[in-house]
Amino acid sequence: MNYDLTRLGSREFEHLSQTLVKCALGPGVSVFGDGKDGGREATFEGTVPYPYDGERWRGYGVVQAKFKQRSEGVSSGTEWLERQIKAELNEWLRPDSRRGRLPEYMLFVTNVSLSAVPDTGGIARVNRLIASYQDDFPQWKLKGWAVWHADEVCRLLDCYDAVRRAYAHFITPGDVLSHLMDTVSDADEETGELIRAHVARELLADQYIRLGESGAQGEHQRVRLGPVAVDLRADLELTVSAPNLDRVPGYEAPVKVRSTRAAAYIIERGNTVLRPSHEGTDGYRHILLIGGPGQGKSTLGQLVCQVYRAALLAEGGEQRLTGEARAALHALRQDLNAVGLQLPAGRRWPLRVALNDYANALLGGERISLLRYMAQKVNRRSSDNITTVHLKRWLRIWPCVLVLDGLDEVASPHTREEVLRGISDLLLDARQIDADLLVVATTRPQGYKGEFHTGDYETLTLVPLGSDDALHYAERLASARHFDDPEMRETVLERVKKAMREEATARLMRTPLQVTIMSLLMERRARIPQNRYELFAAYYDTIYAREVDKPTSTGQLLADHRFHINWLHEHVGLLLQSRAAQDEELDAVVAESELRERTEKRLLKETEDADRATSLAEQLIDAATDRLVLLVAPDAGYVGFEIRSLQEYMAARALISGPEADIIPRLEALAPSSSWRNTWLLAAAGIFPTKPHLRGDLHNALRALDSRDEVTMTLAPGARLALELLDEGISHQHPRFHSLLVDHATALLGQVPRLDLHRHCANTLLEAATTQTQARAQVEHALKDALNARDGRLVTALTVIQVWKQSQRETRVLARRLWTATSARLTPEELAAFNTVAQIEHPSTHGLRRQFTIVGESNLADFAHPHLPPDGEEQCSRTLAGLVAALSHHPVHQARLKDVDVAIVDPGVPLDTTGALQAMGDPQALQLCLDVIDAQPITAWPVAMAFMQLLDFLAYPTLTTSTSPHVEGNS
Questions:
Q1: How far is it, in rounded angstroms, from Cα 112 to Cα 147?
Q2: Running DSSP on this structure, what letter comes out for residue 627?
Q3: Cα–Cα distance between 636 and 604 in angstroms, integer?
Q4: Cα–Cα distance measured from residue 955 to residue 958, given in angstroms and rounded to the nearest whole number
Q5: For residues 899 and 374, what is the distance between their CA atoms, to the nearest angstrom?
Q6: Within 433-531, where are the H helices?
Q7: In 116-254, beta strands by DSSP E
Q8: pLDDT band of 881, cuts 50, 70, 90
Q9: For 930-942, what is each residue's pLDDT tens digit?
Q10: Gap between the Cα atoms of 198 and 280, Å rounded
Q11: d(CA 351, CA 369)
Q12: Please, what's the b/e burial string for 335-367 (b: 16 or more CB within 10 A of its CB; e: otherwise)?
């Protein structure tokens, strides 16, 4: 069979060449990884079984791979290969060449086709070229050489089934699903057809953006994903090796942040072979995508799946699709070309799982594996009965990309543990069957505890939209919505551009969701909201007014019953948000029957007429779901919000409603909860414009939150919320409260270093110090206080200064001055502590052992034992004993930096939460964490950091309310 070698790309063709050479020449072949190879993809030494049994190569040989990106015919390919080989041979012969000893044998592997015509064909020409060097350069006599051109490579692939299987998604020509059996020996026709049918159905089902329904009904139809698709920018932190870091007194952490496009990066990762059995797959396999509310994580996952569907269906198999599917496929390909997003070379089968849906399935009472849940999900749109046996066969046969969307939406620690166990079991099953699986997991940063092992997952962090990216997205959205109205399109874009020129409103266009809402608002109004709460409020008011203006009975109903409609949205938002934050509760949707009953009960109090209440409840629910469409029915008999941020906004409205005396205590009770974080921030933002007399009480509540007990004094949840409020920008127009929030947030500089917090702290305080003179003085004073400490506060301040030094703001000068003054007086222990924290924040893919000289091993339990009750573990509670047992499995490395011993805890290794879950809220466990943190010297701050993370986890039940917030009229 003739395989398509052009899709491989240079890197994967090198890997394919190395694998084929090892198969043909034996295991003695040594391969070289990515990077500079000194003119060698592989080498061999001694006797190899080539070219045939009767005549073997004996000596030192070098293998080189030559990949041509495009093929323009046999003749041009021959000329290109001749130039490549000539350049390589000349490089070996240079007097100053650093390639080492001259090889006795050379093997060139290429994807170029060479003709076999005697004397004049490509094979003859290349052999003649190499032979000419033997005549012209007597100092280098090759004993033998060979050229494996495209036809030879294809025949080798025919011979080696395992290699052919590994690269099937690259090399299968044309309609890959029809040729599946030709490439993969144990595939069958049924597998290819089932995959094709599933991909085609999902292509159609997934073609619209989720916000297209809200605000697009009426004047326009739903908005397709393709016309508005953009590839979001993300940060990828690259670790640079830092040899001799202990030599330089003022050593700076070797961190480089690479800005990339998230979808393109994911696709590039998919353009590699990720089977466990395949050499060259060390390091990261999977990707963790982190992004805040509305930043586009879910839509990006949707886009990636659509791109892979287009790649699988694009070539040769279109005649098997319906006209609707073909039209969707052609349109999507055109849209992707318009934004420069290339179809993957490695054609993977895409699957997407919403993790909160999987959590709901687990809460239904059945211990269902993730694989079985995926089979059930595929079955929903299939006429065939797809089982886990089918899925395992598919995963074994064909590479897959699996998007696991929304870990943050699984708020309950116990349920999240079950979900993570399901993911872990799936990955183990995939390794057992040697599946080529790429997982893309998404989560918000709020509440993320590092559950995905950084040894397996590389982190991409979505960054706020820059002005150019925000405008580009606004232009695509306007073109999609107003393709038939150029005047409206230009009006919207001009208003968006005006908003982007003003600092206060530019902050409201940092995510795709915000730009979408702002664009929709600009269609009907010129007034621009000033914070996120006002943005969502204006959006809700706009679509409400649009429906009221229509001369229909529904419009009149909405006009007459705005109060009840508001309550309906707020009630559902608060109900779903409360359920999501509690254990053993389904979230995301509420049964329509339950909502109808709750609405009828409320209306009965208002009307005192049961029949009227029943009839009106039905009308209001229908109007809310059919016309306003913030509420939707994702499944028959259930109602929920399609956009989670809108659910949180409506819950926030509920939180700041009712008697004013209840509002601040209610927010204070919810403040420490990560599952309520975005809702809480929206509610706080709502207080500033709607209830300004409560602003001082809100700040006092945050101060009080940090002084409840020793746990809150250590974790400082109020200071962290003050930092988040600064980041929201809600106090920019209120200088007094801005200063109060800055003063409170700087308390974090006096805390134990927190890898999950200090960069956010540095960037937010940098922004505050840049925009207001008083804030700059406050931050500078706090930094100096921390720098004068001789404990972990010093390390925290140094890490913040490090971030400031890398910025382009004027505060960089201040940071450098403070760094110079401080680094000159650092003790060896303090310098070692800072360098240690800086290094473990950015571990290399090879692990911390490659970054440090390890001189001993221990575990976290060793640091806990001195702080157990006086009579030892027999006096421990059962839960505390289980926690200590779990800590014994978490390694602590003892390292030496220039005669200073430091303790290192790899932040990429998640804590064993099985034992920790049972200790949540246990007073002995909380006190143990506090004692360990307090006892650590500066050289063991990574241990203190680990116990700080553990304390944050264990304190969850004590910091958060176990009951739903009571709102009069809404509970």
A1: 10
A2: I
A3: 26
A4: 5
A5: 53
A6: 467-481, 486-501, 503-506, 512-522
A7: 144-148, 233-239
A8: confident
A9: 999 999 999 998 8
A10: 31
A11: 16
A12: bbeebebebbbbbbbbbbbbbbbbbbbbbeeee
Cα 489 to chain centroid, rounded: 33
Distance from first CA to last CA of the chain, Å, rounded?
68
Length of the chain: 971
The two three-digit tokens of residue 4, written as one number: 């398509």
Other C-beta atoms within 10 Å of 817: how many? 11
12-32 confidence digits (pLDDT tens): 899 999 999 999 998 889 888
Compute the distance between CA of residue 196 and CA of residue 961 in angstroms, rounded to an integer: 48
Q: How far is CA 561 from CA 136, 536, 564, in A?
A: 95, 20, 5
pLDDT tens track for 244-291? 333 333 333 344 568 899 999 999 999 999 988 876 656 678 999 999
| Residue 94 φ then ψ, to 5° | -60, 135
Q: Determine the residue type at 820.
A: T
CB 671 within 8 A of CB 967: no
User: Which DSSP state fits 675?
Assistant: G
CB atoms within 10 A of CB 322: 10
Edge to edge, the sheet with strand 900-904 lists 854-859, 891-897, 900-904
Q: Which helix (H) or strand (E) holds 58?
A: strand 55-66
Report pLDDT digits (tens) over 389-412.
Answer: 888 888 888 899 999 999 988 878
Look up residue 20 and give its amino acid.
Answer: L
Task: Give a three-class secondary structure readout of 156-175.
Answer: HHHHCHHHHHHCHHHHCCCC
Residue in the structure block whose two tokens are 């650093």: 98
Report angle CA 567, 570, 574 to the nearest 5 degrees: 135
In the predicted model, what is the mean pLDDT of the chain?
85
Within 884-948, strands assigned E span: 891-897, 900-904
Q: CA–CA separation, 147 vs 88, rounded Å?
A: 14
Statement: residue 702 has pLDDT above 90: yes
